[in-house]
Specification:
- By secondary structure, this protein is mainly alpha-helical.
- Helix content is 61%, strand content 0%.
- The chain has seven helices and no strands.
- Helix 2 packs across helix 4 and helix 3 crosses helix 4.
- The longest helix is centred in the first third of the chain and has 14 residues.
- The N terminus is likely disordered.
Length: 98
Amino acid sequence: MDDTLGIVSSMTQSEVGRRRMRSARGMGAFVAERRENLGLTQQELADRAGVSRSWVARFERDGSSAVLLRVMDTLAVLGVTMEMLFSNESNESNEGGQ
């Protein structure tokens, strides 16, 4: 089964070439490694993030999260990055004032 993110399918080949995307499985491994480097258990991470330990375990195992992937797909369609989503800037400033 291909575990690449759905947003890759909405990107042109040149965009894919310019931007390296983690696979879903790669995202889970990244989160697990980061958690371990910080000395956190899955339960501690879950408590701090407000999710269940089983959600953390599932995400680390396969990286899948329907909500996360849907948000990322939606942002890709809109031409919005995660950074833009979380920034305090207005839409107008992101579009050059148009």
